[in-house]
Specification:
Its EC number is 2.1.1.-. The chain is an alpha/beta fold and about 240 residues long. The chain has one domain (about 15-235): Rossmann fold (3-Layer(aba) Sandwich), CATH 3.40.50. The protein has helices at about 15-25, 25-40, 55-65, 85-95, 105-120, 135-140, 155-160, 180-190, 225-235, and strands at about 75-80, 100-105, 125, 140-150, 165-175, 200, 210-215. Helix 7 (about 155-160) crosses helix 8.
């Protein structure tokens, strides 16, 4: 079980000055989340042992800065949420967002539920995979779907686009592979109902290494499977 108080055993990385810029008056919640990850993340298989010293820049701030272009009150579905990245930092930085975390693994669902309760965050947690009908029924029609280190772009688009409303956006946190994935998977994304992927960077003013994101708009009324299902229904 995670603990809601500030007593944390072991080394917890101090928040850099940039964290105050990103989280503002909710910095204390970001510090508590980072402390919980530092204390429990390695033992629960959420992060590697080398990641503890770089939790802020590489994970927490890296996740939070992508909220810059999200409209007020947007519904956000974070698929393959794992340790809660990027969904929990987004919820802390932008309490106006309506966030749902989707994760298939029971032990990670347990962690996410414990953290949401400990921090008192208004977040929904769903156990399942993005491509499952029950998940689509519960979380579909989102304005934004986020994902971090989940799958290559084409596969990720196949999971994420059906969860979006037309005009909604997949926001995929990527690293150095972004350009290669966009070039390789552009046509596949289009066939799945997405627009041309674009590469954006966030946090250039607060991070030494900005967050690289691939953004894909859902441009069609659905994937080929969605459209076929609708055609059969209308007959």
């Amino acid at each position: 079980m995670v603990e809601a108080d500030h007593g944390v055993v072991g080394e917890v990385p101090a928040a850099p000055p940039s964290a105050s810029v990103v989280f503002g008056d909710r910095l204390a919640d970001a510090e508590r989340f980072t402390a919980l990850l530092a204390r429990h993340g390695v033992e629960r298989g959420l992060i590697g042992p080398r990641e503890v010293d770089r939790l802020w820049d590489r994970h927490v701030l890296n996740s939070a800065v992508v909220a810059t272009d999200m409209t007020a009150g947007a519904t956000v579905v974070d698929i393959g949420s794992g340790a809660g990245l990027p969904g929990i930092p987004l919820a802390i930085a932008r309490p106006d967002l309506r966030i749902t975390l989707v994760e298939p693994m029971a032990r990670r669902i347990e962690w996410l539920s414990e953290v949401v309760t400990a921090l008192g965050l208004p977040i929904s947690v769903i156990r399942g995979r993005a491509e499952e009908r029950t998940v689509q029924e519960q979380a579909g029609g989102a304005d934004v779907v986020t994902a971090r280190a989940v799958a290559p772009l084409a596969k990720l688009a196949g999971w994420a686009l059906p969860l979006l409303r037309p005009g909604g956006h997949l926001v995929a946190l990527k690293g150095a592979s972004a350009s290669e994935e966009v070039a390789r998977d552009r046509d596949a994304v289009r066939r799945l109902g997405g627009g041309a992927p674009s590469i954006r960077q966030y946090g250039e003013d607060v991070l030494d290494v900005p967050t690289t994101v691939v953004v894909v708009e859902r441009t069609s009324s659905g994937t080929r499977r969605d459209r076929a299902r609708k055609t059969r229904k209308d007959r």
